[in-house]
Amino acid sequence: MGTPGEARAERIWRCLHCHGPLTPDAAGLRCPGCGMRYPAIAGVPLLVAEPAGYLRAERASLSWASRDAGQRRDWLDGTGRDAGLPDVTRDRYRDVLDAEIAQAEAFLALLEPTEAALEALAEGREKSPGARRAGWNFETLIPYLLRDWTNTSELQVVSSRLAGALKEAFPDPCGKSVAFAGCGAGGLLAEIAPGFARVLGFDLSLPMLAAARHLLDGKSLDLALPRAMNGLGRVSLRKRDPTANAHAEVLAMDALDTAFADGSIDCVITVFLTDIMAHPRRLADEIHRVLSADGVWINYGPSGSLKSLWRFDQTEATAFFAAAGFTVSQAEAYRTTNLDISRDYPSESARNLMCYLTWGRKTAQGAEISRLATPDTARLAEIIPQHFPDARLTHRLGAEEPRQILFAHERAPGRGESFEIGRRAARIIGLVDGTRTVRDIAELLQRSTPAQPADETLRAFARYFDQELLSWREPG
User: Fold this and answer.
1) What are the beta bridge partners of residue 86?
2) Cα-based angle 254, 401, 37 (whole degrees, multiple of 5)
3) 328, 171, 182, 425: CA torsion to nearest 10
4) How far apart are CA 108 and CA 426, in angstroms?
5) Following DSSP, what letter does each residue of 152-218 receive, concatenated?
6) Residue 93 — φ and ψ, nearest 5°?
7) Per residue in 403-458, pLDDT tens?
């Protein structure tokens, strides 16, 4: 956590439940006001609303990936022989599965909680039935891990462009803080020029964050790869400069619901994030909230297709920044690659696309946007919950872990969003049919087996409306 004893270190954090200030303890951070604890795993503080559930879900995902690859390998060695596959094909596929298992097991080893963390997780309150926004899984982010920690030219190009914007925005970075939202594999954290008092990166993929912490500490990480991709069957990842930014902090945190106190960060950087976020304006509002007066937002990434509801080219990004309360200082277009690791892995290819670097200063309050306010307690039971378009529940069959259910919808056209939920949340959401009221659903669950108290169901619906998992309408 850097230097948690310093006054500024204590002022930067707020509790995700009561919004009181957080203070450091032996396991991570805690809220003296409500008693909520946020432990650190593998040096990564879990600044999410439900740390215990989040850690279980992240470890369960890795366990499932390892087990699934093992089952496919068993099939290959058994009935797979009857498919008529040549030996060379079976050997290649077995090698791919072995690499997947080794990767999952390596990340699981990084995520082993300490005794202090386990104690904090046991003490921490967990509000259930809950839902959390799902980050990318570790398999999707493996190519980014390779790009960020094998000294690729693409990473150097991106870091150089960001460095230019940072230099212009902060000629003297002394005492300033910079945070990367959606930092992914975290390679850009190691490239920030010295001088900033605090460098932070946060994301929702805990395996990638643990790997980033390990690498930022100057350690190497051997990653298993299929031999069809890399002849050695593994690659060793490490920092380009072993002394660079060892003080950078890595955090598990939702970009739409951060634990930063109001006005506590001087600069927020988003890279390849606004083009995939389901709620870009909510992201902009959260960035505006956490930035200090005259704070800076730097955004870099593609614009999105012409059919996208949101686009971030020079014109539309400038207008978007202005509407969110920022005065744009620079908007530049660059022809670049995306995820180019072909130098070391010739079988891989990269897309060539236009990326836009836009940065501006916080100068005003963002224009008001209409949101469907959560109904007050008196009205909550009588309203009718509804799903957003393309709502669906996906339950991984045979899974024993507590969070193996994915709830997804497309609240805005072309902008899908997914959440990881538990079985109790799935029971509630599955009963939403556009005709039953909240009271109807609460009574159904109270009479079901196992029975669920009606007040718990009402509290759950209040949270779902606030998180925009569900819409609602008045009866009649």
Assistant:
1) none
2) 45
3) -80
4) 27
5) -HHHHHHHHHHHHHHHHH-SS-TT-EEEEET-TT-GGGGGSPBTBSEEEEEES-HHHHHHHHHHHTT
6) -70, -40
7) 568 899 987 777 788 888 888 889 999 999 999 999 999 999 999 999 999 999 99
